Amino acid sequence: MTVARRICLGFMAAILAGAILLTLPISLADGEWGSFVTALFTSTSAVCVTGLTVVDTGTYFSSFGQGVIALLIQIGGLGYMTASSFLLLLLGRKFRLRDKVALQQSFDKPGMAGVLELVRSIIIATLIIETAGVFLLMLVFKPEYGSGRGLWLSVFHSISAFNNAGFGLFPDNLMQYVTSPIINFTITALIILGGIGYDTIVESYRWVRDRLKGRSGRSIFSLQFKVATTTTLFLLIFGTVLCFSTEIGNPATLEPLSIGGQVMAAWFQSVTCRTAGFNTIDIGKMTAAGIFVSIILMFIGACPGSTGGGIKTTTARVLFNTTQAVIEGRTQVLCYQRQIPPELVLKAVGVFIGSLMVAAISSTLIAISDPTISPIAIIFEVVSAFATVGLSMGITASLSTFAKLVLVATMYIGRVGVLLLLSAILGEPTPTALRYPDEEILVG
């Protein structure tokens, strides 16, 4: 049982357990037994922190069912290894060497030192950020829905936003709050913090702590921190400008809003495409250019070690720098005066090609089973599922059972990762001392 297999089977077990719970009469608002396909789709979407739904979460599921979904989102956002480690910490069990090795490999750390401290930091950071989100959202939900209902709406949406899930309890998601500054900036802040990566949050906390304690020494941020923050910032600004410019003349999205509302809606759309799945405008009525911009942002996704999906910002940055190196005639891939190891370049290429193949195969299968749906809507839905975003052009509920199962598989692959799933299936590679002669071929 390798680490890859433990992670893949762990996510699968959580999905199946959630599906069973969501079929129970207590989980449904009407008190009847639910459809297993609907429950499986919802459970997969929750554990994979995607947000695609075939039913209205707020009316189809009871309070118990919504609580199950929130718990599944939290487990999926933390990750199987982190969630199981947190459970062991609560039970007071000691970590075996095998558990520490599994954690070290799942976090992709060079050593086992500080792994348990990282788990504790992740849990503490999650609780602090989600609690802050609850208090801010209560400023809007409590006056409108009262203390009890307002508290639950705040808790659910805070968990969903920080874990980049995109599940909402309103029929129109958050479209009614398109001009609410508190909702817009609280939700986007939670999404960004959840998608920036726990390592980046911890490194930022240490920098602030050192400054508050008067340690004025020069801070040396890691390459991971620099790439994650700068690439994220660029994509957020780039996405906002493009969303604004492509939708400003669209009477179904931004045109009816004031200039402040248009900028805020464009900002929200740019952030939520980073694997979150909330929406304050009607996605199905966006322009073709706006849809393509959203697909690009969704495919890139969030940062490694975060609650988000996609090929990840670091992967896109490595591929960009590799292309730059080829254009400049260099054999070394450089980033912030550091050389990227060839192994990471190969991994980035593998993630990119594997992701394209999954998206292409899933889109083809859905196009065969549902030929009446437009190709752009299918591609949008598949990329949203693979990148665990949750945005939809409104076709999810009308898909055939086969297409829904294809999306279930796509969401699962997107959450555990293409390379990790292949490693779980094929097993660990066998080291070899064989070396083969070089021979050139024509490329490009």
UniProtKB/TrEMBL annotation:
Membrane listed as a keyword: yes
Domain of life: Bacteria
Membrane-topology descriptor: Multi-pass membrane protein
GO molecular function: potassium:chloride symporter activity
Single GO cellular component term: plasma membrane
Main location: membrane
A Pfam family recorded for this sequence: TrkH
Compartments it resides in: Cell membrane
Residue spans crossing the bilayer: 7-27, 33-55, 67-91, 118-139, 151-170, 182-202, 223-248, 286-303, 344-367, 373-393, 405-426
Swiss-Prot/TrEMBL keywords: Cell membrane, Ion transport, Membrane, Potassium, Potassium transport, Transmembrane, Transmembrane helix, Transport
Keyword set includes Nucleus: no
Entry protein name: ATPase
